[in-house]
Amino acid sequence: MKIFYSTLLLFALTATILTGCGKKVTRTSTDSVTDLSGNWNDTDSRLVAEEVLNTCLTAPWYQEKSKDGRPIIVVGQIRNLSHEHINTNTFINDIQRVLINSGKVRFVANSEERQQLRSEIDDQRGNATDETAKERGQETGADIMLTGTINSIIDQSGGTQVKFYQVDLELIDLQSHEKLWIGGKKHKKVVEKSALKL
């Protein structure tokens, strides 16, 4: 009988512990600053893109290239050379959003997207009507390529960690390969880990 009560008590205790380990999810605005780990996040991506690219559009290259209309840009490689996994696609989308919404430049699809589009055009041959089928050789060529890197340095002492990020972006003329603009943003975060209290 003692074993029965001990087993029952253990079962009740286990059930109580497991029900106390639930997860709470709270919806929040996408514009709010939420920094849980101290790693690069959506806020960093958005703020860096906005700050760097606003200076980009006021640089001397823009006056020269915009004489014939809005310059056409294609995004090349944005390489993540940092110590963290950073989704560069999110950062690239933030960059394109800022530039397109400025109304001062135009974008064409990158090389990977162009392959998908060309495949779709090929699929339309023989499948779409003559009036709606698109033709090859009608693409808009870019004037400028945007490339860049994300680097980081970590400095740590005890429970305090400093994370330094450096984003470097370049605009390169596709015809002459001349570097038209080099811009960057340095970004630093201090992460303090509290001591574990028992």
Strand order of the biggest β-sheet: 2-1-3-4-5
* Count, helices: 5
* Proportion of beta-strand residues: 25-35%
Radius of gyration: 26 Å
Query: What is the overall pLDDT average?
Result: 84
The ordered string of helix (H) and strand (E) elements is: HHHEHEHEEE
Q: What is the tally of beta strands?
A: 5
Residue stretches low in confidence (pLDDT < 50, at least 5 long) are none
Helical amount among residues, as a percent range? 25-40%
Please tell me what the overall shape is. Answer: flat
Structural class: alpha/beta
The major sheet is characterized as: 5 strands, mixed
* First-residue to last-residue Cα separation: 36 Å
Care to give the gist of this entry?
The chain is built from five helices and five strands, in the order H-H-H-E-H-E-H-E-E-E. With 198 residues, the protein is of the alpha/beta class.
Walk me through the topology.
Layout: H1 2-19, H2 42-56, H3 60-65, E1 72-80, H4 88-102, E2 106-107, H5 111-124, E3 144-157, E4 160-173, E5 179-192
Parallel strand pairs: 1-2, 1-3
Antiparallel strand pairs: 3-4, 4-5
Describe this structure in words.
The structure is a single chain. The protein has 198 residues and is of the alpha/beta class. It contains 5 helices and 5 strands, in the order αααβαβαβββ. It has a 5-stranded mixed β-sheet, covered by helices on one side. Helix 2 (42-56) crosses helix 4 (88-102). It starts with a helix and ends in a 6-residue tail after the last strand. 15% of the residues are buried. The mean pLDDT is 84.
